[in-house]
Amino acid sequence: KNIFGAHKKAIKLLEYCTATLVNYFLQLLQLAIKIKYLSDSVSQNFQNDCLALFNK
Predict the structure, then answer these.
(1) Is the pTM of this model over 0.85?
(2) What residue segments make up the domains of the chain, in order of their start?
(3) Is the alpha carbon torsion for 25, 14, 4, 53 positive or negative?
């Protein structure tokens, strides 16, 4: 389960404004589902990576 592909696609859509709000919602929903099913170790790494990005 690769969440990185899903989040890159969602960010790309937002960055280039190439989608409708429905497209954004669907991408975010897919991303949320993939995040929900991460293993504990991957989930912790993902959380740390997100915190590092948001704290820049």
Answers:
(1) no
(2) 3-54
(3) negative
CA dihedral 49, 46, 26, 1 (to 10 degrees): 140
Question: d(Cα 18, Cα 48) in Å, to the nearest integer?
Answer: 30
DSSP H helices, the chain, are 3-16, 21-36, 40-54
pLDDT tens digit sequence for 36-55: 777 787 777 877 887 787 78
Radius of gyration of the chain (CA): 12
Residues contacting residue 30 through CB under 8 Å, at least 6 positions apart: 6, 10
Residue identified by tokens 């409708």 is 20
